[in-house]
Amino acid sequence: YDLDFIIEDLILMKYLQTFFHRLVAVNRPEFVKTSDNQVNFLQHIMSIIKKDGRVGVVLPDSVLTDMGATEKVREKLLKNFNLHTILRLPTGIFYANGVKTNVLFFEKGKATKEIWVYDYRTGIKHTLAAKPMTRAHLQEFVDCYCVGHEQDRVATYSIDNPNGRWRCFTEEEVSNADNLDFKWIDLEEKDERTVAEILRDMQEESDGIAETVVRLRQLLGGITV
Question: Sign (positive/negative) of CA torsion 88, 103, 63, 11?
């Protein structure tokens, strides 16, 4: 999994999800019918992964919580894929106010048993100007992930450390949960930005959207859907 790509290109990936939905997720009889672009993007990924294929994809909270068609897609994901890790990302890293996202790591070939969750959202605040999120901020997650030797993972959460950010949810806990939006840390989230910082962030958001549109047009070339 290339976490650097995930962090650096979150915004572009958001636009590409909408594009791919329109390009390939229309009239797919094997899909659960839904108009949700994000859910259809996930369904498309699930449909093209080969056995033992591994994926890391950025998706909004709604994919983990919504009912109806979205819940059916989650059930298919848990049944046919091993959703072994969820990284909860902080708000403020997308160019849309209040958007909360996660990185879902899964592989095809066996059903989900336990799910490891790293909560890098609760009590964390990043801004585009004053405190942007960088690769270094996720070093603890990378260390906890144990790439290549996942069997050696050790939770930082415990009864003695209830605010530990790395926690394992058992197969029973996953099965009994109403959704996959796992929360346990009890920390107060505050927006400590000054007015000047808020205005600067708003300007950067506007500039970032314009830049992303240019990049997207360059990638798509003359393609129209």
Answer: positive
Q: Quick check: 43 and 25 in contact, CB under 8 A?
A: yes
Give percent of the chain above pLDDT 90: 45
pLDDT band at 117 (very low <50, low <70, confident <90, very high): very high
Do the bridges between strand 81-88 and strand 115-119 make them parallel or antiparallel, or are there none, so unpaired?
parallel
Q: What share of the chain is helix, strand, coil (3-state, %, to 5)?
A: 45, 15, 45
Q: Whole-angstrom Cα distance, residue 190 to residue 132?
A: 16
Specify the pTM.
Answer: 0.75
Rounded Cα distance, 35 and 63, in Å: 13
* Helix, coil or strand: residue 211: helix
Cα–Cα dist 36/176, whole Å: 25
Radius of gyration (C-alpha) of the chain in whole angstroms? 18
Distances (CA, A) of 109 to 15, 95, 130: 29, 35, 43
Say which amino acid occupies 158.
S
Q: Which residue matches tokens 């690769």?
A: 135
* Cα distance between residue 13 and residue 7, in whole Å: 10
Measured distance CA(23)–CA(171) in Å, rounded: 36
Domains identified in the chain and CATH numbers: 3-220 (3.40.50.150)
Local confidence band at 12 (pLDDT 50, 70, 90 cut-offs): very low
